[in-house]
Amino acid sequence: MKAALLTRYRAPLEITELPDPDCPGDGVVLEVLACGICRSDWHAWTGADPDVKLPHVPGHEFCGVVVETGPDCGRWKRGDRVIAPFILACGQCPDCQAGNQTICANQAVPGFTIPGAFASRIAVPHADTNLAALPEGMDPALAAALGCRVTTAWHALTGRAALRPGEWLGIWGFGGIGMSALLLARALGARAVVADVVPEKLAAARDLGAAAVIDARVGDAAEAMREATGGGVDVAIEALGLPVTARNALRSLKKLGRMVQVGMPAGEHAAVEMPWDVLYSSQAAIYGTRGMPAHRYPSLFALIEAAGLDLSPLIARRVKLSDVSAELAAFDGPTPPGVAVITDFTA
């Protein structure tokens, strides 16, 4: 199979031929239809993620067609179009049995702890637990964009913070997570305000229905968000994993507000000093979140269908496998709105 192989940190990935993956006994092998390129992949590319051991195939936002099944796989057959969350759970431990697959102690994470989907094929273990059927007619590129950004935002908003209609959502960082959170919040009947430092992203947020936008380069961005919402947001999403946005997200809350840490704190940002006096005085709540269990895909697909939700603005570029290195390097600086998705694995 063709794959993009990470052999040195912060170096171009090597486009090479690798053996096809072995099929797990309870899993499947997928022919990859599309794979998103995410800031989390950038963390792996820079060497900030200790789980990544070189050489390695990154990529964790994927969908595909089943081309091989193991003898203990019961739900899937060749030809099925499926999607998987980026946390592959064992399905057997107490946490999995309780529905909390994202904290499975035996989890595997494609692109980090096991080979990922910057390749034409990928093996998925424990397939009966970890796969969901794609809705008929869904664009594979859109499905891949769902794989981390939309699913993580959906679980943050509904599985953690319980965002309600009429509430204010503050979004700190308008990348893929931030854009997903805005689109989902509007479908849920909430109002959203977006903060970022890139004018192009603020313009995109306004075009996609943000009730207000905050240019975080100017003045006190958290106070500006509080003023724009008449006293603060009910829920704040930190979508970048940076100290400044984490602190601003907490400070932008109204009393009894809820903050969800979605951005991945890694490397030098793994430990962040926070204004705990704000947490104390406002009696706020802070939630962590990471990914989404596979069993929650039907609820997400139901909302997309019922609301007629158009998620296509998420896709900024459809690229080739050989374009991955340039896309990863672009995360070193401000990036334009939308995400890049690999749809051509032949070159």
TrEMBL record:
Q: Which family does it belong to?
A: Belongs to the zinc-containing alcohol dehydrogenase family.
Alphabetical list of Pfam families matching this protein? ADH_N (PF08240), ADH_zinc_N (PF00107)
Keywords per UniProt = Metal-binding, Oxidoreductase, Zinc
Q: Which SMART domains match?
A: PKS_ER (SM00829)
Instruction: Point out the coiled-coil segments of this chain.
Output: none
Q: What are its cofactors?
A: Zn(2+)
**What name does this protein carry?**
Alcohol dehydrogenase
